[in-house]
Amino acid sequence: MQIAMIQDKIVPVNEVEPVYFDRGMFFGDGVYEVMRSYDGKIFALEEHLQRFAGSLSSIKISGVDIDLIRSRILKAFDAAGIANAKIYFHITRGSQPRDRVWNADLQPNFFLTVSAVADNTEEKTQGITVSTFPDWRWKRCDIKSLNLLANVLASTDAASKGCGEAILVDGAGLITEGAGSAFFAVRGQTLQTAPLSANILPSITREFAIKAGRNIGLEIVEKSLTVEQAADSDELLVASTTQDTVAVVRFDDKVIGDGKPGRYTKLLTREFLSFTV
Ligand code: PDD
């Protein structure tokens, strides 16, 4: 008899719930999205759906109807009745006994949660501290893949140091992005961030932060920063769906500016928030 064991219970394999054979579980074989609403309105829904379609296509999961995904999101968002909601969803390739090669006829698995966005008023008012960590990720960080082990290790390292985010540094000493955010520096009249490449996620918030930066008169420079340049910047900030834009007031041991959110970060955040209403 083929058996499985779940915690300490032996179960015949044919009675095991398919979720235990989810390829997302075995291999992180799936892709995800996180979007949020502001006061009852989902922000950048189409941009997120477009990125999701790109992620699916990059890992060769085909046949997913994006219109159906949109309608599921709207239905769940409506059912939850949370005005400032975080909507998480993923699609895995499907369930099958563990094999690196996938079966051609798999049905993708869909999972979604709606929860309240964590309140980050304190972070927004006071800024956050960050710590650097090696970028150990694979070479296709532009895909929003469920494989987040390197990010998990980096984020947990930062949290253990009392920091709000880990900033990932590649083998050449260049900053790619945060473990869960895009990373920006204000240097003089410029807003600098890493260029889009396979090494970073094409963050939706990054795009809107760039637009906000331009609107407040900053010149945009898409060029990777070294750790030294970042530490020596006038202002630093991180950007992500769940946090929008948050000032970084300490970078490893270096206090940034006067240790409070800087002028441009505040202006940029205000401009960014005007896009969400
Ligand atoms: N993470 N870079 C990484 C590695 C990320 O995981 C995220 C977001 C971002 C910002 O992307 P966006 O602006 O599209 O949210 C950049 C989400 C929020 C998460 O994994 O929960």
CATH architecture of the largest domain: Alpha-Beta Barrel
Strand content: 25-35%
Count of domain modules: 2
Bound molecules: N-(5'-phosphopyridoxyl)-D-alanine
Walk me through this protein's architecture.
With 277 residues, the protein is an alpha+beta fold. The chain folds into two domains: 3-116, D-amino Acid Aminotransferase, Chain A, domain 1 (2-Layer Sandwich); 121-274, Alpha-Beta Barrel (D-amino Acid Aminotransferase, Chain A, domain 2). Helix content is 29%, strand content 29%. Strands 7, 8, 9, 10, 11, 12, 13, 14 and 15 form a nine-stranded mixed beta sheet that branches. A four-stranded antiparallel beta sheet has the order 4-3-5-6. The model has no long low-confidence stretch (mean pLDDT 98). Bound molecules: N-(5'-phosphopyridoxyl)-D-alanine. Residues 34, 151, 177, 180-182, 201, 203-206, 240-242 line the site of N-(5'-phosphopyridoxyl)-D-alanine.
Q: Could you provide a short overview of the structure?
A:
The protein has helices at 23-27, 45-58, 66-80, 121-126, 149-160, 204-215, 227-231, 263-274; strands at 3-6, 9-12, 30-38, 41-42, 85-92, 109-116, 128-134, 165-169, 175-178, 182-187, 190-193, 219-222, 235-240, 244-251, 254-255.
